[in-house]
Amino acid sequence: MLHPLPARPRRAQRFGVLPGFGLSMGFTVFYLSLIVLIPLSTLFFKSATLDWQTFWSAVTAPRVLASYRLTFGAALLAALVNLVAGLAVAWTLVRYEFPGKKVVDALVDLPFALPTAVAGIALTALYASNGWMGRWLEPLGVKVAYAPLGVVVALIFIGLPFVVRTVQPVLEDAERELEEAAASLGASRLQTFLKVLLPTILPALLTGFALAFARAVGEYGSVVFIAGNMPMVSEITPLLIITKLEQYDYAGAASIALVMLLLSFVLLLFINLLQWWQARRGLGKNV
Q: What is the DSSP letter of 139?
């Protein structure tokens, strides 16, 4: 005698606040295309109006190459400084209690809220030859304002919060029991940091470094006041693009911007690949 098969239980439907994947993905692609992809694609189209020889001459002129070196070199140096300084600040805010801690924590976000032009004017007034710090530094041979060093100082100022705010929550969630266990087994403080704590916070450090670097590459407002803007010396690429636009050389400005876009994308891709490799390496050790 045949018995009817039992009815399959209906799969429980999962409801969420947002709609399903299809609609959500469609909105995501539409929004990113409208805000990011379409504006960036105009760089390719505008640059395509030039022939190859003219394009190459525009993006490899000595003045343009000097601006590349200053922009990317200063951004990289500032991001490296913020990598160390941001870790120290985040460590202090997480691991220690001291008077005025909330004030210091709030001051970290000041570069986010402060208009970049105001930051540039303040830094220039501070490090100029008659400023509070410039009057002591210039007799020692250290010229900050109206020099490439001023560009690095401005980029350090605007990039520090990215590292601190990325590393701080990871440090708060780190298990101190692992550090205590390492210390009880005879590990020194340096060994505990390198072997126990650093692998935990390294992805966050790399993320903060990438954010600080990306922010520094495109910075304009705080740099243009303190740099001095001398061609071949302290002229950044964003300022050179603005100069091209003021001269109605839209194709030349788009060409330089396209090179900056491609170089920034390659560097950020490398940092993301490094993060991915570090995550895979850590996963393999845990297995």
A: G
Residue 195: CB atoms within 10 A of its CB come to 12
Burial class (CB in 10 A: 0-12, 13-18, 19+), 274: middle
Share of the chain above pLDDT 90, in %: 32
Burial class (CB within 10 angstroms; exposed 0-12, middle 13-18, buried 19+) of 57: middle
pLDDT tens-digit readout, 139-153: 888 899 999 999 999
> Given phi > 0 = left and psi -120 to 50 = alpha, else beta, which region is 135?
alpha
Ramachandran region, residue 232 (left: φ > 0; alpha: ψ -120 to 50; beta: rest):
left
Calculate the CA 17 to chain-centre distance: 32
CB contact burial 83-102 (16+ within 10 A = b; e otherwise): beebbebbbebeeeeeeeee
Helix orientation angle between 116-127 and 148-173, rounded to the nearest 10 degrees? 120
